[in-house]
Amino acid sequence: MRRLLAAGLLLASQLLPAAGVVHEYQLDNGLKLIVKEDHRAPVVISQVWYKVGASYEHDGITGVSHVLEHMMFKGTDAHPAGQFSRIISENGGSENAFTSKDYTAYFQKLEKSRLPISFELEADRMRNLNLQDEEFQKEIKVVMEERRLRTEDKPTALTYEQFGATAFISSSVRIPTIGWMNDLENMQLDDLQRWYERWYAPNNAIVVVVGDVEPDEVFKLAKKYFVSLKPEVIMPPKPRIEPPQKGRRDITVRAPAEVPYTIMGYKAPVLATAGERWEPYALEVLANIMDGGDSSRFTRDLVRGSQVASSAGAGYDLYDRQAGLFLLDGTPAGSHSVAELQEALFRQVRQLQDEPVTEAELSRVKTTVVANAVYELDSAFYQAMKIGQLEAVGLDWRLADEYVERINAVTAAQVQAVAKKYLVEEALTVARLDPLPMETGRQPSANSSGGAHGH
Amino acid sequence: MVTSITKSLQGLTAAVLLSWLFVVPAASAMPAIQHWVTDNGVRVYFVAAPELPMVNINVTFAAGSARDDGHAGLANMTSTLLDMGAAGLSADEIASRAESLGAELATGSARDMAWITLRSLSDAAYLQPALKLLADVINRPDFNEKDFARERERTLVAIRRSEQSPATVAEYTFFSSVYGDHPYAPRPGGTIESVSALQLDRIKAFYKRYYVANNAVFSIIGDLDRKAAGQLVEQVIAQLPAGKRAAALQSVPVLTKAQEQRVYHPSTQTHVRMGAPGMHRGDPDYFALYVGNHVLGGGGLVSRLFEEVREKRGLSYSVNSYFSPMEQNGPYLFSLQTRNDQLDESLLVMRETLQDFVEKGPTKKELIASKKNITGGFPLRIASNSSILDYLTVIGFYDLPLDYLEVFNDRVMAVTRQQIIDAFQRRVSPDTMATIIVGGDS
Known about the structure:
- The complex is a heterodimer of chains A (455) and B (442).
- Chain A contains 16 helices and twelve strands.
- Chain A has 455 residues and is an alpha+beta fold.
- Chain B folds into two domains: 3-16 and 30-237, 2-Layer Sandwich (Cytochrome Bc1 Complex, Chain A, domain 1); 259-439, CATH 3.30.830.10.
- In chain B, the strands form three sheets. A six-stranded mixed β-sheet of chain B has the order 1-2-8-3-7-6, sandwiched between helices. Chain B has a five-stranded mixed β-sheet with strand order 10-14-11-13-12, sandwiched between helices.
């Protein structure tokens, strides 16, 4: 094991720096441009990241960042509704956009010579979006359908949403990215207009380009298309720091479902908020010890060992903008209850607090991290994602390169220390999905009968 | 609208416009596929990719659920158990060894095929022990009673969980309705009844029959040369008995009349799946149908269905149509989901859009736009090792010509409007489709 780990470290230091050089530029209007070379294929990934998302929102307008993301495809004076997508499509591109708690991002994947097309169109909609009520009335319906699809009709997603809003009382981490249905129903075009004017400006955006490109040429191109855009005075969102939790919180969600489910979360710091820099990395290792593949403790002990779980997982994101949660979740195996599964998960936590993890486990996590750093280079899109995510939450993209080194520095004692410090009942929120009957049953079909198949 | 697109393009640089003339990527960008057959009959497809220090492997067998033969879930359970104990190693030991090497070892199955994949660093200190694990899982699975009992229970929970999803219920109902007695009809994961009735002896017999060299395709891409690839393949599958290739599946009967099936689900949306058997891999109408459908419902954010259902009326978040070519005719499937009380309107719009397309085909401009998207986007589809591995698997498994990728763009460009109209009129019949409607009360 030690031999392999040593080889892994060697491999990392030899290969990763050579994987692609990153160049950083800034335009006079504040726009940041980050270019990473990847010459394996004649393609380019272009992403525009805005520092705005659900965690910037407040009650009454939840979901506005995401609705605005939809409306960004609805045209400017120069490129009316639908034209953006048609131009990208005719250029062989694929494109889309995504919104999260901390950012809103737009991307195109193109053959490398088509990058100017992406820049021209993105620069145009960065400041010149033409928000019209007719388009808005249709698009808000689409977003409500999206909410039904993603949340209303998914019992586990519904449970997660209520869980998040229980774990946090004041912090905007509690806001679901898709928005509460009632806020969507009452959203006004003016809400979007103000949100757009407030956040969509070059000095609140990061352009990330990864691909078979020449960085200085990309910078020239960026200047050509983006430099004339006027910056805004960006007022950062208020901190809204969550008051300390004073005891365990429990909720039940009753919804039509076939299978019970539980999700639990402990308040935990992230890189941006941690006093001790090693702590988030130790939490990351802890999550991997619990649930980092088929040999992790949850699968080994709970799914295959005691068989109390049909599935069980752990999750932690060290790159969020605000302090969040260290998550545990799972579905009990057929003959077990949610309470038994929860107790088994707590026992796992206690064990990690009482005894240091083994060297073999630590070594497995570290080797996996090194290998993943190589595998990630197979996706230009993922490389761009990592840079954009870090920059959008105000962290430095160089942290991505430090990741392997930082994880490798984590000790068994540090993993135990963060388990003891953060996985405490005072900071715990627990949700359970309590299935209601589905009342399934096929009604007679309208006009189908036997013998409909012929040759 | 189209005029203004042209106008906007004129604003772009001359270099960009010039590149329009050469949409077909240079031959040098094309992965060079090497193909050979091992002594025991495994068909191998290899691409050297020295840029990253890693190797991706996919070993595929014609051992999907279409071979279940009345025991739905058999192929899936066989595949699931491969890495749950092999060569005397327990599931814990296999997982722990693989992950200690940074290797990703996985098994899976669908209707036509079952596969075992490995991604490993190419450094011999990692690759060699990872290959040993891969070989054990393929050649010497233990099929222990204890692992079988546990995985059967987990599969039953997964089946019950799938009943929570109206989309999944709609898809299963669609297959059962469209495929009737054909082996594509049953759920690949099985039902509560069929999985409860599975026997380990049958699983072992299934493994013995289908996990054989003549029924296998071995795809590799990574940082190694042809000689090393040859050794690698032998190391993994030399022990595999030759056996016999699985017989061709029976052809799929066409639907002769429309059918509609409604399933109650306590959801706020109604999910619609509409369609019929479509086409198979290597189908003579493949390119006409593929390009035609790109215009109708396959072009992502730009298609007639997207425009009519979502952009004009806001009825659905996702709406699309696609052909899934399989060994025999896979489905031509139309999907949308909408608030329960908007079902009738959505269905009407989707059907009218299809009807109109089958009657009149794409416009010249639509056809040009779709061809530009497909051919212009070609470099993106072969930009990563994992995507090339997928192409190798498809080419190998379905006996497609080795120059499939090289001629792909030419084939797309050669499709005419008339060919699309002709192919759709012969192959797509809106009057004899199955419509599955899963949702709650409006």
